[in-house]
Amino acid sequence: MQLIDATQDNSRLCNWSYAPGWRFATYRGTNLGSTLILFLDTPGEVYLDDLSLVAGTVAGAGSNYILNGDFEKALTNGWRATGTATNSSRSTNIIHTGGGSLHLVVGSPAGSNNRLQQTIAGLASSNTYTLSFWYLPVGSSNGLTAWLSSSFLPRTVLSGAPATPGATNSVAGVLPPIPSLWINEVQPVNAGTLQTQAGQYQPWLELYNAGVTPVSLAGLCLANNYTNLTQWSFPAGATIPANGFQVIWADGQTNLSSLAELHAGFRLSAAGGSVALSWMQAGQPAVLDYLNYPAMPADYSLGSWPDGQPFTRRFMPHGTAGGLNDGTQSPLVVAATVSGGQCVLQFNTLPGSSYRVEYQDGLAPAAWTALAPQVATGFTLTTTNALGGQPQRFYRVVTVTP
């Protein structure tokens, strides 16, 4: 991975790249067979577009013998996947030209038996043909073979950006000014924090503009996954003020959406998931900020603390939609029972934080007796304390390390 624009924020995913973009490959040969086979050396993936096979020696000049080589239609038009290549698909998000490309995905094992293929009609074995295509490498180095016969099986090395220690990055360039926007908070289970204008409690997320000028949201996108980054686009006219917050309802009810109350075209999963904020960069969606969250109790949220940065994010027992996040919220005792001379306390916690229960037997000023600290691995902790025959006892929960 290499930094693209050293003058801008290097914490932004969109400012890093493993490859210099789409590349062009072309091969010329004779004695072609009647089936084109595409396969990878090892498990991996690559994007392909504008795949062309023409008579003669000039790439792309003349009639294309490959059906649906521009991938403007579904793969069922001309293509067939076998083996571990069956997860391959047509992509409408990452493209070279037009409205689609091939996302060739090969699992384990790879090789020629796990492939995408098409029967090619009308080829004359004695004629010269030129095969050409554009490709976008993904991940580690690999090899792509386009097999048409045992004498025509060109192999393309798929590699990321070459390392340049002590020299200018091979992907170095100038990006448009990256907006000062962050995914600041998410609440996938909203049971009583905030209502929509329709009076509903729905999942929501919050953006924060850490800059000193308003930012237009038009053309930016939100998604609850990393495979379809343009899942929902902000409408024209949507803005966020300087040092301001914008709540977006992630409930899939776009029919309720307006500039006054935005509703995204997807729903946050209560079981855990992801949120991505993207913009278009060199014609492709690129991630400005992202957040992964686990399952959380009702009305808990996960947000940046302090606001407007991606490095420290905390669980909060109470969401703070449209305002500053509060990462110092005190634990709340949710249950206390007494049985057999034992008091059992259950209280809300934040995973990774440590807590100490303290008690005294009267409300007059006195020293509190501390029980052993506990580290929370989930969203609740339980402590048991022997009452020792006392008719009353008062407890408090202290956050030791937030």
For the terminal residues, how far apart are their CA atoms? 34 Å
Number of E-state strands: 31
The helix content is under 10%
State the secondary-structure class.
Answer: mainly beta
- Low-confidence runs (pLDDT<50, min 5 residues)? none
Strand arrangement across the biggest beta sheet:
20-19-14-13-23-24
User: How many distinct domains?
Assistant: 3
Shape: elongated
Radius of gyration: 29 Å
Counting H and I runs of at least 4 residues, what is the number of helices? 0
Proportion of residues in extended strands: 35-45%
Give a short account of the largest sheet: 6 strands, mixed
- Give average pLDDT, whole number: 93
Can you walk through the features of this model?
- The protein is mostly beta strands.
- It folds into three domains: about 20-160, no CATH class; about 180-315, Sandwich (Immunoglobulin-like), CATH 2.60.40; about 335-400, Sandwich (Immunoglobulin-like).
- It is about 0% helix and about 40% strand.
- It has no helices and 31 strands.
- It has strands spanning about 1-5, 15, 25-30, 35-40, 45-55, 80, 90, 100-105, 115-120, 130-140, 140-145, 155-160, 180-185, 205-210, 215, 220-225, 230-235, 240, 245-250, 260-265, 270-280, 285-295, 300-305, 315, 335-340, 340-350, 355-360, 370, 375, 380-385, 395-400.
- Strands 20-19-14-13-23-24 form a six-stranded mixed β-sheet, with no helix packed on it.
- The two termini are about 35 Å apart.
- The mean pLDDT is about 95.
